[in-house]
Amino acid sequence: MFKLLRQSPISARFGMIMIVLTLILAIFAPLIAPYEETKVVGDVWEEFSSKFYLGTDHIGRDLFTRMVYGARNTIALAFFTTAMSFSLGVLFGFLAASVGGWLEQILSRVFDILMAFPTLIFCLMILSIVGASIPNLIITVAILDSTRVYRLARAVAMDIAVMEFVEAARLRGEGNWWIMRHELLPNALPPLVAEFGLRFCFVFLFIASLSFLGLGIQPPTADWGGMVRENAGAITFGIYTPLFPAGAIAFLTVGVNLVVDWFLHIASRLED
Predict the structure, then answer these.
(1) Over the stretch 12-54, which tens digit does the pLDDT of each residue have?
(2) CA–CA separation, 65 vs 40, rounded Å?
(3) Nearest 5 degrees, angle CA 86-CA 88-CA 91?
């Protein structure tokens, strides 16, 4: 790992620094934030000062405090949603590749049907019906995003399933579950790790978009996408408050993509 880090390009190192800085804010939010997450401490849209580092929001809450807690809430929700979607997609993708036959056809058709609907519109429709709670948000986004993971996991696993070492394992009498854990997963890990970073960026932006539309993380919980929506009216008065959460979303997304590009380069086994 240290050898890989030393050989990493400057862009990947810069991306790691961006990710680490954001994670520090998220993990140590109660220690870094000067105020409580939902406490009103000033007037509406106050300017920068020693008391309010980034000013205040549309009801007088400290924007820096909201940004710090928003990092924790947004990143945690996006990470758990991505982990759940990856678990579903990889599990069903490996099952389809290792078992094949009617099971592969059924799974592929089900995921094709889910992919046929526009993701944002389908998600908005479901959340409007079941409610925009955190569990509903995680489950809905994870199921919809798992369709993309399924296609990648199935394609990679099908290439590995025809290898000689997999056939040797089958001849030894190993079951599909053993083959999935000991043969398919270790050999499919590099592209899956890179895909996890890409899917995290998508889910992160998707949840921020839902919050901006009012169906993501609900107030008064701090969330970067919701903060952009809440303070959007400030632009009319020449106040740049909503640009801070929007910039934070872009900052983390760029950092993750820089690291993912490096992982894709390693997974492709290409030399400069």
Answers:
(1) 889 899 999 999 988 998 999 999 888 888 888 888 888 888 8
(2) 11
(3) 100
Q: Confirm whether 202 is domain-assigned.
A: yes
Full residue range of the structural domain in which residue 212 is found? 71-268
- Residue 50 in contact with residue 172, Cβ under 8 Å? no
The DSSP code for 269 is T
Residues shown for the chain: 272
The DSSP element (H or E) to which 136 belongs, if any, is: helix 134-161
In a domain, 169, yes or no: yes
Residue 51 lies in a domain: no
Of the candidates 250, 228, 251, the one whose C-alpha atom is nearest the C-alpha of residue 241 is: 228
C-alpha dihedral sign at 86, 220, 244, 40: negative
Q: Which two tokens stand for residue 245?
A: 């959460």
Angle at 159 between CA 158 and CA 164, to 5 degrees: 105
Number of domains in the chain: 1
Residue 85 counted as domain residue: yes
Does this model's pTM top 0.90? My answer is no
Q: How far apart are CA 132 and CA 142, in angstroms?
A: 14
Q: Tell me, what CATH number does 226's domain have?
A: 1.10.3720.10
H helix or E strand, kind and range, residue 71? helix 63-99
